[in-house]
Amino acid sequence: MVTVSLTWALGWYLDPMWLPNPQFNYLYGSYGLAVISAFFSVFATIAELTYVMIVRQEMREPPRSVPLSAVYVPASSKADSTF
User: Among 1, 2, 17, 38, which one has the highest count of C-beta atoms within 10 angstroms of its own C-beta?
Assistant: First the structure.
């Protein structure tokens, strides 16, 4: 999508006669939607790569040591109260 959008934009900018019927060769709403789609595709790719890098880094790190006495603290129930 990015390649098609850039090809169309450069062809239109550098030579308006590059397509037949130059009177109809103008950028319209569908081209704008294609550019927005390409932007979101690039953004999603960068976000996915960042996420994968973070997950892989966390998988390479050793597990954090947690004292076993602090892992589980039972909550008091109302049945045990003396009220």
Answer: 38
Q: pTM for the full model?
A: 0.54
Inter-residue contact 38 to 8 (CB < 8 Å): no
- Residue 5: exposed, middle, or buried by beta-carbon count in 10 A (0-12, 13-18, 19+)? middle
The pLDDT profile of the chain, 83 residues, written as one tens digit per residue, is 778 878 878 887 888 777 777 677 666 777 788 889 889 999 999 999 999 999 998 888 777 776 655 556 566 666 555 55
Is-contact 9 38, C-beta < 8 A? no
